[in-house]
Amino acid sequence: MSPDAAVVGSGPNGLVAAVLLARAGRRVLLLEAADQFGGGLRSGELTLPGRVHDLGATVMAMTLASPAFRELRLQGVEFAHPPVAAAHPFDDRPAVLVHRDAHRTAEGLGRDAGAWLATVGATARAGLPLVELLLKPLGPWTVPPSAFARAARFGAMGALPATTFARRAFGTVEGRAAIAGMAAHSMLDLRSPITAGYGLLLASLTHLVGWPLVRGGSQVLADALVAELRSLGGEAVTGHRVRRLAELDAPTIVLDVTPRQLMSMADLPGGYLRRLRRFRPGPGVFKLDWALDGPVPWRDPAVAGAGTVHLGGTLEEIALSEAETAAGRHSPRPYVLLVQPYAADPSRGGHTLWAYCHVPNGSAVDMTDAVESQIERYAPGFRDRVLARHAMGPAVLEAANPNLAGGDISGGLASLGQFVRRPVWSPAPWRTPLPGVFLCSSSTPPGPGAHGMGGWQAARLALRP
User: Residue 389: how many CB atoms within 10 A of its CB?
Assistant: First the structure.
């Protein structure tokens, strides 16, 4: 019997779409080209036997805050919170520690305590209704009217470049650097509009829901979604690459793929095709995973308790690094985003660690030494702890997951112009011009993150009568 709906790709968006369609009574077929479900949620033994590494997403703040995952209410997934959500070390002073408690975080910022509470703290106090507005930029919304006023206040701050916002709102090296480290997750030049918004939102989530990991690895979350789909009568198949939509015999097709893949899979109307071709890719990443013989020897011992660590020093240093990447160059002292899973989850077979830096899209430069030098800068003797390492540049990342074109983990540049125009401007950008065909990847609103909202929106449209 032919399925009612075929979902291509099993990243968080594809999985959410498949489960929601199945819960609505549709017969769903999920097809994944890789030999493992999950896309950016996959885990594996990248270094040594028994060491569990996440190939993509590890920190699941967006998952906990997401309306899609809160609606799903999955069973069997345990979230583990590190003692410290995030840390930002320096060369010559104690690290900034971002705790679940906003006031405790502010206390560590000295004379910037009030500024943190008035900006990041205020964003966190706006709560999940604000998050819903940001993760559903085109609606539909189920929030109280007061949420729109709070969103307007957030927008007044968030629309600014991170560099401008940090200098206006904070007076200390620590406060400015902490915001820069958060904003650099955007993979944009920090002099660009809305980069302050990325920093504010991510920082506020530490206080609102925390920055947890999935106990046992992110694969556990992907497996729970596949199990839920199968329990509802859906079929899930790995090792099946869909090259053309004509291969699929289903009235509804949901694609967790990039615009570039969509263009190769279907004959699209000329106007839509031209607009897709204008969609800009984002920078790539160079990712390293390590198996260590013990914890990272941080100069500031307080950093050991952090799940996430931002390495790059001051606002000015981080902004320079991101500007270099945006200009197509490789920074000799890159901003490094590092995750210590063992700080929250000791069940992963030992001290595993991963980090990445931003590089120009499609870069072939080996950034191992640059990344490890940044870690050594704040943790002298780090290299002596390394038992094994595994490197993935843009080409390797794309080979493992075609959605990571050129190493772009964001599904396209996350700029102001492409925040809503993902991948084209439309009141419903998840709907393609092809009847019954929907796009749900991070190339659709609200963009990158393990929130599943692209899948939620595509499924919602597909279920309309």
Answer: 16
Query: Does position 188 have pLDDT exceeding 80, yes or no?
Result: yes
What does the pLDDT look like over 319-328, one tens digit per residue? 999 999 999 9
Report strand pairing: 351-359 vs 336-339: antiparallel
pLDDT exceeds cutoff 80 at 1? no
Spatial separation of the C-alpha atoms in residues 260 and 258, rounded to whole Å? 5
Mean pLDDT in residue range 151-157: 96
Distances (CA, A) of 444 to 50, 181, 440: 36, 25, 6
**Per DSSP, which regions of 261-376 are E strands?**
284-292, 306-311, 336-339, 351-359
User: What confidence tier does 419 reach under pLDDT thresholds 50, 70, 90?
Assistant: confident
CB 389 within 8 A of CB 314: no
Residue 458 included in any domain: yes
Mean pLDDT score, 364-378:
98
Q: What CATH number has the domain bearing residue 21?
A: 3.50.50.60
Question: For 204, phi and psi rounded to 5 degrees?
Answer: -65, -30
State the helix-helix crossing angle for 315-326 and 173-183, rounded to 10 degrees. Answer: 30
Residue at 418 is within a domain: yes
Cα separation, 353 vs 421, in Å, equals: 35
Token pair of 423, please? Answer: 């991948």
CB 17 within 8 A of CB 431: no
Max CA separation in the chain (angstroms): 67
The helix or strand, by DSSP H or E, that contains position 399, with its residue range, turns out to be: helix 394-400
Q: 268: pLDDT confidence band, cut at 50, 70 and 90? A: very high
- Helix H or strand E segment including 274: helix 270-277
Identify the domain containing residue 426 by its residue range: 5-41+216-280+411-462
Tokens of 277: 């071709």
Q: Up-side HSE of residue 274: CA atoms within 13 Å toward CB?
A: 2
Instruction: Please name the residues in contact with 329: beta carbons below 8 A apart, sequence gap of 6 or more.
Output: 360
Residue 57 belongs to some domain of the structure: no
Least confident of 135-139, 204-208, 219-223: 135-139
Residue 162 maps to a domain: no
Rama region for 232: left / alpha / beta (φ>0; ψ in -120 to 50; rest): alpha
Domain count, the chain: 1
> Rounded to whole angstroms, how far apart are CA atoms 213 and 160?
30
Predicted confidence (pLDDT) at residue 211 exceeds the cutoff of 80: yes
pLDDT for residue 77 = 96
Q: Alpha helix (H) ranges present in 49-192?
A: 61-65, 67-72, 102-107, 113-116, 122-135, 146-158, 162-169, 173-183
